[in-house]
Amino acid sequence: MHNHPEPAGGWRSASSRRLLAISLGITATVMVVQVVGAILSGSLALIADAAHMFTDAAGLVIALFAAVVAARPATDRRTYGYQRAEVFGALANGVILIVLAAWVGIEAVSRLIAPAEVEVAGGVMLVVAVIGLVANGAAMWLLSVAQKTNLNIRGAYLEVLGDLLGSIAVIIAAVVILVTGWAPADALASLAIAAMIVPRAVTLLREVASVLSEAAPRGMEVRDIRAHILGTPGVVDVHDVHVWQLTRGAPVFSAHVVVSSDVITAGRSDAVLRDLQGCLSEHFDVAHSTFQVEGAGHIEHDAHA
């Protein structure tokens, strides 16, 4: 047995479910503070940011539920397990973000076109926005490591990033109102929040679409994998190459490999198979690979089938 030191990152290296639960607690708390602040200050930007936080809290609940489901073991019917639950959770998050951006944008434009006779309390607005900034920064720090390998955590991370940028926009609007008394700054901040939501939602949905369409993972070139396979001693050809991913950071590979006759005769097919799997694991970080080893005659049979 070996004693392994705790990975760098401390709390950030906790399980995905724990990270999501902590982030949910932070998000829900800040959301309540923003709702109270929006009522006290009359700020549309705080209302928009609070609605954003509410959506993020709902998204984190979805993400947390997806993480729990994804941890369930594989079955005879779900042979890959439930890892795709993370992808569906991320899809729900992306859709929620798009709907939110549309609502905030419409409300902000209507306030600019027909300003309401509402006096915005810049001081309250500023204090609440600073609290949101600090809380969102802490949540981002917690999720920063896990989001690199987990699509569901990445969705939550992007949502928190949007919250942080939203807090910055509200702070700027609050300062403008306190210094100049120009109330439309509040509506402009709301519009800025809506504009910041759209790109990250589109990015998340694009990544989800890539996974669900079983496209090759970004940065993984099939021709490079094919070249490595052909460079393995005993391999003379490779065809029916497929690369996809169950979720972010979980690539899957399959291929038909044609080996020379002396490999078949000497019974070295198992050795070639171990070399191929080791190559994919070492060079392309593919933990799950499936190869069908064939002789030259078998490929001719396939070609005429």
- Strand order in space, largest sheet: 1-2-3
> Uncertain runs with pLDDT below 50, 5 residues or more?
1-8, 299-305
Mean pLDDT score = 80
End-to-end CA span: 52 Å
- The helix-strand sequence is HHHHHHHEEHHEH
Radius of gyration: 26 Å
Gross morphology is elongated
Question: How is this structure best summarized?
Answer:
This protein is mainly alpha-helical and 305 residues long. 67% of the residues lie in helices and 9% in strands.
How do the helices and strands line up, and which of them pair or pack?
Blueprint lengths: L15 H26 L2 H27 L13 H30 L8 H22 L7 H30 L3 H29 L9 H9 L4 E11 L5 E9 L1 H6 L2 H16 L3 E7 L1 H8 L2
Parallel strand pairs: 2-3
Antiparallel strand pairs: 1-2
Verbal overview:
- With 305 residues, the protein is mostly helical.
- Helix content is 67%, strand content 9%.
- The chain contains ten helices and three strands, in the order αααααααββααβα.
- The chain has a three-stranded mixed beta sheet.
- It starts with 15 loop residues before the first helix and ends with a helix.
Question: Main attributes?
Answer:
305 residues; mainly alpha; 3-stranded mixed beta sheet; 10 helices; 67% helix; 9% strand; disordered N terminus
